[in-house]
Structures are given as structure tokens and as C-alpha cells.
Amino acid sequence: MASPDYATFMHDDLPMPEIPRRPGIRPIAVAISDCHVRPGARIWKHAPKPFGDVIYAFRQCAHVVNALSPEFVFLLGDILHANINPADVLGIVADFISQLPQTIPVYYVQGQHDLSSPPWLSLLGSSDKTPRCRPLDSHVLRSEAGVSVLGLDFVRTPYNAFYANLEANHLKEVDVVVTHQAWREVVGPGGNASFQDLGIFSGLKLVLSGDLHMFASFTHSTQVNHYLSTDERLEDPSQQVSFRIVFSGTPCITDLNSQPPYGVLILWPDLSVTHVPFFSRSIYKVHLETPEDLERFRSEHPPETLADTHLPGDLQRPILYVSGVPELLLLAKELYEDVSYFRMALKSATFSISIASESKEIIHKEGYDFRVQLLNHLISKNPKYAAVYREFLHVLEKPEDRDIYFRKAISAVLDAEGLHEDSIL
């Protein structure tokens, strides 16, 4: 049962997305990914608001599924933000599952955030005889049109563990792989998997993947891998496999890295994919280096017109994410904090700060926390903060401990100035 606080995001009069219909053709699946459900339906765990985005997104997901009646629903991982979850989080997901037709099976793969044993999703909305959500990891589904779909959970490091898992599930013919991996081609060397690994499937045509918080689609070509063992593969230069990778993105804002358009994917029998964009909270990102930058943004987005009144409840209030010169950020905060969820960027380029009253320079390395700049701006107005800050630096020898106490000092100064931690990410 959903909390009464969520009712405003679920009623029947809410704006719903357009349905991409194909007369006489039933979709194979609706694919949903990276919902990152947190307690209180929040975007950030430490702040009670903004909230409700995922509730409204789930309402739109259910609308799409009920309208199209696909063969399956695929959950592409990180539906939950953590692998230990309170009743509130489980209730949000269970309520969403209850909105889907009982005749449409729901299959899931796990992401790195919700990876657990036993999987949480297998426990939601289930009975002893009929589990409502079924694991797709290492299983193959076959659609009415004969399309074969293999599911793979997120595989933790070491890197070759993913390839070993592919070997264990090797089939001569797989049309679609449904998974959630941190692909090296996307996230860099720290990724746990590579598109090259998928060359083991000579007939592969499509990959539907979670993890990337934006809708994206491209084609990848690689040589076919004839597998010999877990640690040895033979690439055949005479054979090439070419397949498409489609990232569904998120159905709503889950963090400041989520990129619109938010929505879900529709997989059709011809293996074409349609992205269905959802209604969602607005987010504005602006960098302020000069007063003209602030004036330009203010003229384009006056504070009094910032609310999206067609959206439900708390979603009417947008997020304003601002970086730049501290003085301008504080001016922007005065203008917009009452009509938006105002956030200031963390990171900035190389800089040094000096305590105005004593000309003692304190150097911080490249890429250090943006809050250093803001703190410098504040202590330059009141030298008493400089003494507090210097005390923290002098009494500590270990860099890791210094960082802890430094952040405590920042919190004390920000609190004294009426700037709380949840306004600075």
C-alpha cells in the first residue's frame, strides 16, 4: 500500500505520455531501468524534498504497459537504490507492480545498486505458487515471433568475470541481450564489461542495457570471439558481428547526472526500439561567471514563472543547479531559493585561497571541493571563521582525517550563515 503522501502523484487526471501504437502489432516488451527508489520517494537520501518523482514515473510506466499490453515487462536493473531496503521502498515498488496486468509477466536483471541474494524483486507481489517478478539472469525467453532474449545480471569485478558468465550462457543464437553493466566503452577502464565480450554471440542483434542515466543508442561492430576458456579467446578476423546497444535511461530524475528525455523503451517484434518520453520535473543547470550571466538567466527564467503548474504536487517545483563565482551563487540563491530546489555545484578548477585578515595562504589541490571557494568567500567577510578553519588544519596530521574535520568546519560556517548542507551538493 502506497503512503497517502504519494496520492497526489497517482490520480487519474495526471498528464500521461503519448502511446506509440502500431496497428495489429503487439510489442515484445516495455523496458524500464534505473529508477533508484529511495526512502520517501526522494531524489537525495539526506533531503526529504524533492520527492515523488519516481511515484509519478511509475504511474506513467503502468499507463504505457496497460495501453500496449506487451508480452513482457523488463526491469533493467537498479530499480532499487540499495541492496538493503526499508518497508517504504519495497512498498513503492510493490504498488507499481500491482498496477500492471497480472497476465503480463515481469522479468528483471539486477544492477550493481540492488544486487542481492535473494533478489528483492522476487519477493515483491509474490505468492508461493506465482512469483510476480521473475529473474531473467542466465535465462532465455522466446517471444511470440521467435525472438530469443537472454538476461544477465550485473557482474562484479574482476573484469573477466563477465566474459566467464557469457561463456556459461553461450548459445549459438541469441537475438537480444537484456542486462545492466558498467561498460568500459562508456565509463572507461573502471568498467566491469566490454562490448567486445558480446562477440561471443554470433547472431546477436540488440542489447538493452541499464546503468547509463540517459537515453542513448548506437551500433557496435566487433570480431566474433570463438571462446576457448575463461582466460583465452580467439578472435576470428573473417567474421564480424554488428549489433545495436540501446540505453533506456531513467524514467525520472534520480540524481543530477540523469539526462532528459526521461522515459521507457518499447521493444517491437522486428527488433526496432521506441523511446517513450515521460513528463517530469524541470531541472535547470547554469554557470555564473559574470553578473550578465545571472541577469540573462533571470530574464529567460523569471522566478515567478519557474513553476510547472501542469505537474502534480512537489514536481511543480524545479531543481536549479548552479555553478560559478560564489558571490553570484549567493545572489542567485536569494532570487530563486523560494521557488526552486536550489543546489550549488561541488567541483571547480584549480585555485588557492587566502585568509584576508592574516595573508596566510592555504593551498588546495586541483579539483578540490567547491565548498572551499564558498567558505573562502564567507571567511573573508568575518575573520573569526578563519581562526576556526586554521585550527582544524593545524591539529590534524593525516590527510584523510583533515578532510573529515574540514567538512565539519564547513558545515559549522554554512550553518552560521544560514546555508545548510542540503543546499550544496
Radius of gyration: 25 Å
> How much beta, percentage-wise?
15-25%
Spatial strand sequence of the major β-sheet: 4-3-2-1-11-12
The count of helical stretches stands at: 9
C-alpha end-to-end distance: 32 Å
Class per helix and strand makeup: alpha/beta
Question: Uncertain runs with pLDDT below 50, 5 residues or more?
Answer: 226-238, 346-370, 421-425
**Average pLDDT taken over every residue:** 80
Q: Give the SSE order as H and E letters.
A: EHEHEEEEHEHEEEEEEHEHEEEHHH
Helix content: 10-25%
Task: State the total count of DSSP E strands.
Answer: 17
Shape: globular
Largest pleated sheet: 6 strands, mixed
Task: List descriptors.
six-stranded mixed sheet, alpha/beta, 24% helix
Structure in words:
The longest helix is centred in the last third of the chain and has 18 residues, at 399-416. Helix content is 24%, strand content 24%. The strands form 4 sheets. A 6-stranded mixed beta sheet has the order 4-3-2-1-11-12, with helices on one face. It has a 6-stranded mixed beta sheet with strand order 5-6-7-8-10-9. The chain is globular. With 425 residues, it is of the alpha/beta class. The protein contains 9 helices and 17 strands.
Short description:
With 425 residues, the protein is an alpha/beta fold. The chain has helices at residues 53-68, 87-98, 160-168, 184-187, 291-300, 326-336, 371-379, 383-395, 399-416, and strands at 29-32, 72-75, 106-108, 133-135, 140-142, 148-152, 176-180, 206-210, 215-229, 232-248, 263-267, 273-277, 283-288, 319-324, 341-344, 351-355, 360-364. 24% of the residues lie in helices and 24% in strands.
